[in-house]
């Protein structure tokens, strides 16, 4: 199949970003939303983004105009998918809403049209089975913002055909992104299965060790090679996103995450992080400010509990044939910005020490912490 026409459903930050990268790669794109006002705003943002690239000399003004002209905003769903070969759905992460959208989409899209859901945690197989084409349904998880982030997780459902997987990987490559395949449709896929539980674990670590937020963040940044601290990263991501992902993942797999009450409390109090002016830290305005972290503070904190958490989840992905070490390292490098491979850090700390830490945590705090068989075999 020669892919030329793409429809993006949902024109928010992710939707208009995916529309822009697709049009930049030469695809004809229809951007669809339920109100014209949403589409007008999205097209303004795309225009601004392309003009900025032209001003910086990354593309010519002529290229910017040409890319913009390849995106057509349409409100009517049947019209929006009339010529589509691939529909990328980017509606909010609410299962009932997604199912409602797909019921409507399935009835108006041609039988050969491929459906791809840009979900970060919801199960692909469950959504796919609500349509008449589970073999033509796939997960395609872009990271925010799609214009800048290189990583795309590709998640086949149980019935997704090999042809659709290959075509999706080709599409990801054509929009100049790097793909990792999550080979099994597991809660959280790869990145969120590693990142979201770590935020909760950092809260437990603060309770249990008495380390301060900035000490933990400094250790995460300077000892573990993260681009920023874990609390800082949570604020940057948004507590609404983290809370939603937590709820969905925990609902489907109690082994993946041990929810800390702080996250829900912050979500309920609208302390969403940078976007609301306060999360774990306070922010004074819209401008992105970095939290003051230092190597000196990092020395006061041993982050082994956090390493044990992220590594146990990584090992679970390998043991359950959802991924392998190489793909996980590629994912954390591109998706979380890790400057040092995860398993390299683990070897420096000592796999034996990590397994012992997990065993101690399990004896004090329950089965959640039991070490994965892979880690035990790596000692």
TrEMBL record:
* Residues covered by the 3-hydroxyacyl-CoA dehydrogenase C-terminal domain: 188-283, 306-375
Stored SUPFAM superfamilies = 6-phosphogluconate dehydrogenase C-terminal domain-like, NAD(P)-binding Rossmann-fold domains
Q: Enumerate the GO terms in the molecular function aspect.
A: NAD+ binding; oxidoreductase activity, acting on the CH-OH group of donors, NAD or NADP as acceptor
Q: Which InterPro entries match?
A: 3-OHacyl-CoA_DH_NAD-bd, 3HC_DH_C, 6-PGluconate_DH-like_C_sf, 6PGD_dom2, NAD(P)-bd_dom_sf
Q: Which Pfam families match?
A: 3HCDH, 3HCDH_N
Q: Mind listing the GO biological process terms from this record?
A: fatty acid metabolic process
Every 3-hydroxyacyl-CoA dehydrogenase NAD binding domain range: 5-185
Q: Which UniProt keywords apply?
A: Oxidoreductase
**Leader peptide range in chain numbering:** none
Instruction: Tell me which PANTHER family the record gives.
Output: 3-HYDROXYACYL-COA DEHYDROGENASE FAMILY PROTEIN (PTHR48075), 3-HYDROXYBUTYRYL-COA DEHYDROGENASE (PTHR48075:SF5)
Name of the molecule in the record: 3-hydroxybutyryl-CoA dehydrogenase
Q: Which organism is it from?
A: Nitrosarchaeum koreense MY1
């Amino acid at each position: 199949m020669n892919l030329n026409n793409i429809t993006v459903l949902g024109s928010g930050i992710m939707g208009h970003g995916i529309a822009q990268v697709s049009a930049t790669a030469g695809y004809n794109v229809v951007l669809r939303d339920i109100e014209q006002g949403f589409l007008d705003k999205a097209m303004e943002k795309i225009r601004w983004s392309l003009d900025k690239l032209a001003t910086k000399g990354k593309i010519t003004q002529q290229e910017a105009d040409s890319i913009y002209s390849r995106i057509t905003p349409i409100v009517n769903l049947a019209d929006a998918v009339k010529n589509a070969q691939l529909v990328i759905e980017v509606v909010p992460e609410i299962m009932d809403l997604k199912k409602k959208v797909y019921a409507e989409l399935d009835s108006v899209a041609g039988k050969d049209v491929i459906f791809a859901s840009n979900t970060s945690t919801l199960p692909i197989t469950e959504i796919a089975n609500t349509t008449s084409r589970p073999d033509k349904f796939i997960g395609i998880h872009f990271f925010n913002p799609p214009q800048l982030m290189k990583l795309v997780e590709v998640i086949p459902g149980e019935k997704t055909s090999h042809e659709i997987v290959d075509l999706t990987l080709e599409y990801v490559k054509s929009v100049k992104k790097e793909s990792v395949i999550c080979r099994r449709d597991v809660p959280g896929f790869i990145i969120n299965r590693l990142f979201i539980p770590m935020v909760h674990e950092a809260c437990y670590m603060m309770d249990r060790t008495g380390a301060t937020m900035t000490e933990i963040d400094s250790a995460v940044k300077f000892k573990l090679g993260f681009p920023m601290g874990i609390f800082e990263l949570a604020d940057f991501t948004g507590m609404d996103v983290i809370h939603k992902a937590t709820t969905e993942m925990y609902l489907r797999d109690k082994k993946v995450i041990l929810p800390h009450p702080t996250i829900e409390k912050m979500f309920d109090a609208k302390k969403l992080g940078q976007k609301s002016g306060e999360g774990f830290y306070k922010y004074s305005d819209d401008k992105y400010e970095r939290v003051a972290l230092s190597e000196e503070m990092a020395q006061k904190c041993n982050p082994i509990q956090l390493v044990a958490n992220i590594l146990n989840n990584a090992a679970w992905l390998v043991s359950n044939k959802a991924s392998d070490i190489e793909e996980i390292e590629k994912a954390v490098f591109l998706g979380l910005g890790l400057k040092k491979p995860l398993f390299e850090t683990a070897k420096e700390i000592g796999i034996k020490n990590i397994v012992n830490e997990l065993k101690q945590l399990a004896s004090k705090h329950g089965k959640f912490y039991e070490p994965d068989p892979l880690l035990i075999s790596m000692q």
